[in-house]
Amino acid sequence: MSTANPRILQAIAEMGPDTGGPAQTVSSLCRGLSSKGIFNKIFTSTKNNSSSFLAKNQINELFPFLKSLYQKELQCFCTNKNINIIHSNGIWLPTNHNTVKVARQLDIPLIVSPHGMLSPWALKYKYLKKRLIWSMYQQKDLLATNVFCATSYEETKCIRDLGYKQPIAIIPNGVDIPHKVKNLLKISPPSKKNILFLSRIHPVKGLLTLVEAWGVLQPEEWQVTIVGPDVCGHREEVEMAIKQKNLGDSFNFVGPVYDNIKKAELFAKADLFVLPTFTENFGVAIAEALANKVPVITTKAAPWEDLESYKCGWWIDVGVKPLIGALEVAMSISNEEQQAMGQRGKALVMKKYSWETIAREMILVYDWVLNSGTPPECVITD
Fold it and tell me: Range(s) for CATH 3.40.50.2000 in the chain?
């Protein structure tokens, strides 16, 4: 019996640098798949002003279209290129809906990666708008999905709790493994030790929790560097909280950083990485910090129990008090222990989260979707 080779189309609404983790992980997955000889292309409605970001991420081919033409162009491309699997990234947006419609029209198997958008926190955020979209098309679109792709067991539970019974492939995101990152920047020791926050400045990321905890601790020998794009004007809210607590000397806003060398320099200057998030389907920045040998504090709203298992960070409950406790411990450890935690963190990432490993798992899923047989070990069917 002959088997079909995967010809994958990765559909994603936007690929700009300010759109969050999926833009980065989708392009990295495509590079990993291409390195193993798998035909895969990205289809997006990204505007041309994001081309520099896309070039830096070395996407093998990009098809940007006006959103009004998205469905028509997607259908033509799938037909012309003999696409036999559509992997849709994200939900809620009209482009996501149009992707599902094309999969139905052409009878192409559909894989959906929700990217954390079905978590309880995410469902409550802009609730009324999402409730309307859910009733209009989103609920039915998810029913049309052949296989879900989740990055953690926690995300799998979110899918099952909504009543969806399709198979779910549990495959984490990956991270590019840096080499000799700490040697990129040999500078004189800073006057203060540095905590790094690198993510979107968005209410879900918990920056106000960090400010509240810092106001209680007020450690004189430490400072916080905040790196990332401002989303929905949240930076102003954070800056106001910092001002009200007279903590302006402790917080430094850098803005978004996308250049890999500059990002590596930020990690090289960091003694600790903190992401007090309210929900995270994976947390690419956490993996990046570990890959760069930086111990991490994050919450149990992110799927990072490995921080405890591998003794490379602190996995805490959501809230100010747990964060205060973790910061007190983390800021009191010796330089030697900090370095040992960093080494363990990089070993963890190399073992479980390299893109080579992730691409290999994803190919097994694509092959199974096309050719049936026994599900890969990463797929749950109950």
Answer: 7-174+354-380, 181-352
Distances (CA, A) of 297 to 158, 173, 284, 287, 308: 23, 19, 14, 12, 10
Q: Which residue has the tokens 């894989």?
A: 111
CATH code, 7-174+354-380: 3.40.50.2000
> Residue 310 region, left (φ>0) first, then alpha (ψ -120 to 50), else beta?
alpha
What dotted CATH number matches 181-352?
3.40.50.2000
Amino acid making up residue 286: I
**pLDDT (average), residues 205-222:** 96
Looking at the DSSP bridge assignments, the partners of residue 41 are 9
Give me the amino acid identity at 325: G
Tokens found for residue 289 = 């910090």
How far is CA 46 from each of CA 13, 41, 53, 347, rounded to the nearest angstrom?
Answer: 7, 14, 11, 35
- Reported as a single tens digit per residue, the pLDDT across 151-200 is 989 899 999 999 999 999 999 988 877 755 444 444 445 678 999 999 99
Environment class of 288 (CB within 10 Å of its CB; exposed 0-12, middle 13-18, buried 19+): buried
Q: Give Cα 134 to chain centroid, integer Å.
A: 23
Q: 225-242 in b/e burial notation, b at 16+ Cβ within 10 A?
A: bbbbbbbeebbebbbebb
Helices 284-291 and 335-352, packing angle to 10 deg:
120
Contact 84, 369 (CB under 8 A): no
Strand partners, 198: 227
Pull the structure tokens for residue 1: 């019996």
Q: Rounded to 5 degrees, what angle do the CA atoms 22, 268, 358 make?
A: 35
Q: Which pLDDT value is given to residue 261? A: 86
Paired tokens of 319: 């809230």
The whole model's pTM is what? 0.76
Backbone CA torsion sign across 155, 156, 162, 167: positive
